[in-house]
Every structure is written in C-alpha cells, then in structure tokens.
Design a protein that fits this description.
Elements (H helix, E strand, L loop, with lengths): L1 E5 L2 E4 L10 E5 L4 E6 L6 E7 L7 H11 L2 H4 L5
C-alpha cells in the first residue's frame, strides 16, 4: 500500500507476507531501500538497500528518512 511519495520515490508498506519489525519500502530506479520505524517513539532508521552496489547518495537517504518521519506518512486515524 502506497503511503506517500517524496521527490518521485514511492513510500510503501506491504501488507501481505510481511515480517517484523515494522518498516516501509522505498523504490528508486535501480535500488530498493527499507526503513524501520517505531510507532512508540517515531524513530525511523535506514535498514538496508538492495542491491548494495547501486546505493544512492547518503544525502538522498537522509532526505527520505526525514520525509518518512513526518507524521502524515505513518499515522492513520482510528476513525
């Protein structure tokens, strides 16, 4: 399920056949990154990038992490 986008990168949570810990996937043109997050304290951290040889610049990953930390990406109303 797409939860947002940042500068053309799609931020998704897969709802089927997924595993812990809670995380989102971010797909680039030549890579796929996963960011772990906590509902308890709002922490978000880069988990991994595949394939490693196609990693984007660190600054891009930092910007995406900061975007994911915005409340509207991971929060869902109970209503």
């Amino acid at each position: 399920m797409k939860v947002g986008a940042y500068k053309g990168y799609v931020i998704s949570v897969f709802l089927r056949d997924e595993h812990c810990p809670p995380h989102v996937h971010v797909r680039g043109k030549e890579w796929d990154a996963r960011f772990r997050f906590s509902f308890l304290n709002g922490d978000v951290e880069l988990w991994d990038i595949e394939p490693e040889r196609r990693q984007p610049p660190t600054a891009v990953m930092k910007e995406i992490r900061e975007a994911i930390m915005q409340r509207h990406y991971l929060a869902r109303d109970a209503a």
